[in-house]
Design goal:
Elements (H helix, E strand, L loop, with lengths): L2 E7 H9 L6 H15 L4 E10 L26 H5 L13 H11 L7 E4 L6 H11 L4 E4 L13 E4 L9 H8 L5 H11 E2 L4 E2 L13 H15 L3 H9 L3 H4 L7 H12 L5 H12 L12 E2 L5 H12 L5 E2 L2 E2 L2
Parallel strand pairs: 1-2, 1-4, 2-3, 4-5
Antiparallel strand pairs: 3-8, 6-7, 9-10
Length: about 325
Amino acid sequence: MLYDNIIIDSANLFYRLQNNSTTTVVELTKKMIDFVNDETKKHLKENGTIWIVFDPISRNKLNEEKSFHIQTYSKSTSSIRKNINKNYKAKRQYSPFYAKTIENVMKYFAYRGEKIKEIYSQTYEADDFIEPLVKTLSGNIALVSNDEDWSKAISETCFLINRGYDEPWSKKDFFEKYKFMPTPAANILYKSFFGDKSDNIQGCIFMKKAKFMTNIRKTCLNVIRDVSESGISIDDFMHNFEHISYLDIINKENKTNTELLFLEFTIASQKEGVLAKMKQNVHLVRSLLDGKDISKYIHWNPENEKFNDIIRQSIYGLDGKTWFGKVSV
């Protein structure tokens, strides 16, 4: 399949290509550049666009000429999610090669023309950009990541490339694994209810009081399916959920799945903040840029051979006429 737009999770790609092997920054930089230039472009339509999305990285001293400039990120930048939960991603280990390799990749693709665009900010994570970005795009879309947080954007025309371009993960594949169709709200609730060890997020139903409620897992899954089928937004779901009246539904004969969940959470919250934990998880998991204009975070520059030569030299220490040992065109 050829795609009109291919969106690449740069951090995820780095760790997939590193593959726990001993290597160098230069080798990893070359692997990432080759993946974009050699592998990705084969699956892109002639007038398609490649989007490379970055997480914030710390500021490093760049070794380029004074005339070359690219924005990097300050060490003092605070994480919004850390302010919500200080344990967010607390157990995650980072490669010592990561920051410099990602910075090299950013530099290399900064002056490649309008068909290769970079997306980054000082505050927001790569995950935050996916939902609002996909909403602005048309045609077939490939999301290159094996981070299943990105699966919330899967649709009839949007596929997750979590194994390879020849094995796109579709809505059908997602349903076979999770038993509900992906939507932003349904996926957010799934992670909020059941947690995510990779991000060190505890599922609210696994708190000490809630996990002994025998029906709570089934009720959560029923709510997720309802949300998926209705296509409701996470904001509308939370608004409706927070305005349920305990007194109005306690004696109601036929309760909706959402009303049942509200009762179970309310009972569990008598001794432990299960309901508060769910709300906290929703804030952690959802895109912080949902519904917002992200155009100011999208960066691209016209092809500029002068800057391209500077990039070659600063990364590889080569003269401007060579590139990976080949004469540049």
